[in-house]
Amino acid sequence: MELGPGWMDLHAQVKIASKNWSKIFEFQKKKVEFAEKDGKKNWGGRIGDGENIDVEVVQTVTQEATGLTFDFKTSALKDSDMEALVFWIDVPASLFAKGSYRTEGKDSSYGDLPAELPQNHILSSGKLETVRLFNPDKSILFLAQFGEATNVTIQDGRKWGPYFSVLIHMFQGTLLKGESTKFSVTLRAAGTPDQSVAEFALDASKPRYSVRGLGGNYCFSIDSPEKDATLAQLKPQFARTEISLQQWQPRRGAPPTPNAGKVPREFELMRQLAQKKIPFIASIWQAPDWMCQPIEVKEGNRTVKYTGIKPEVWPEMIESIGAYLLHAKTEFQAEADYFSFNETDCGAKIKMSPEEHRDLIKRAGAQFEKLGLKTKCLLGDVSNPRVPRSFIQPALDDPEAMKYAGAVAFHAWNTGTAAEYTAWGDLAERLKLPLIVAEAGVDSSAWVDGSYRSFDNAVREMTQYQELFAYARPQAILYWEYTADYSLMQPDPSAKSNAKTAETERFALQKHWLTFIPPGSEALTISGGKEHVMLSAFRKAGENGAFDYTLNLSNAVWPRKARITGIPPEIKALNAVQTTRGSLMQQLSPMAPVNGVIEIELPARSLTTLTTMK
Q1: What does CATH list as the number for 198-202+528-611?
Q2: Residues of 25-56 as b/e, b for ≥16 C-beta within 10 angstroms?
Q3: What is the CATH class of 212-516?
Q4: pLDDT digits (tens, 9 = 90+) for 209-228
């Protein structure tokens, strides 16, 4: 949303909550129709499960002098019993934390937008006509005005992501088949965004942590051209592959089938990684039917169905996993550095309890040791940085399990807060284990509509990497994914085929990280900075004892100026490489520090690398 010479990041969408908020439904991304006519933008689609709730929502957006007006028409395709039809608005907590809110209507109120997530995340609720949110110095206002008074909740959404949320209840109750309801909302932002200089101080004498390697996942679509292109052009320094256990041993009691399905390609990929001396993780998503059973898990006030592992087959499962990894070593000269079951905290494919996660590490680790494998287990490999520590606590409390834990790992989906990232880094440091971000990415559902390809997504990924460097202190970050799944490439219009071989901004961002932060780099201490403008700095020792230095300046918003002090006196010039929208890895004129200071103009939504590397 426009805000003076810049803008405010705002996410707004229609959601439907079933009774007691047991389920939340949204537009199915691939089934939303869009049209634009006479200055009005229209989206339409169905929301619901098709059984208890099935409605069609048409959303019309018009830019007016008073702001953006959203007109909604919701029609029931069958009797639909809803807790609420909600227009859900997320605004950045980074902008409004320590600010305030003021509402008007029957249940008007005012109060603070807290600096940290409070115990009660509901800040205000009642029948309202207007909601105003202010940043700390009241220089920026966000206004939501409703066509008629309705129930509205203001909540601290940092329980789930980096935002405050305004939940506007457009309808509550049962909408009978054939009935329709209408509602309108006008949104406006006013004020001037921060345009002051982003000031940074570098202390090159204080390394914080070392980087073992940056790279990506090669798990799905490993027969795609992107796999070979990224291996050759990005030259990853760390990787992750899939173990298709369901194809490796589909029948209980029968010998493994190393030539079945995708398995041969997995082994060949592991051989490639080993030949290139790229350390890698081997992870399981699915297990064969004979290992699995349906399970039910109580989550709050509801029971959720998952797929689990049968208790009686654990010895055979561990043996099968060990046989797969041993086959990779003996027949393909490829030995995995780490092993995991993917995201068992949330049951992405297989659900495990905290105790089962502990037992997996203990039993698999012992089996790998028995087979003479160097492979260690990942502690965690959880779905996002917000997963409670309780999931890994049984393993932490068991010395026998921790003996086989080789690294701490989490996935960065939907991003985390500085505190959440810091907690993972602190844990790894306390355990004296490396920290691996095994899946870096900002939207785990972006594959549905291909929105991962957008430049907006690229900017969010750029910021996520900078936040991980600043707070999590990882030894490895693995992008999801270096294959056709979440492809970093696009079809080359000059090519004869439709193969995706042309680089994108997202590809260029990965090239910045992998080219200028080689294995063995040490992250340096930085202070200062501005919201949305971040600096990461690294040094790498050379053969003669001298250091190469790299500074990465990311700007996620409008054009800004940055100033860096503390540049080491031995640096006489810094080569400059920049990626912006439509301009990839652009070579700029070298920059010379003046009295240890660099000043630079940063284009909107850009990554600029300053480096002594050639």
Answers
A1: 2.60.40.1180
A2: bebeeeebeeeeeeeeeebbbbbbeeeebbbe
A3: alpha beta
A4: 999 999 999 999 999 999 99
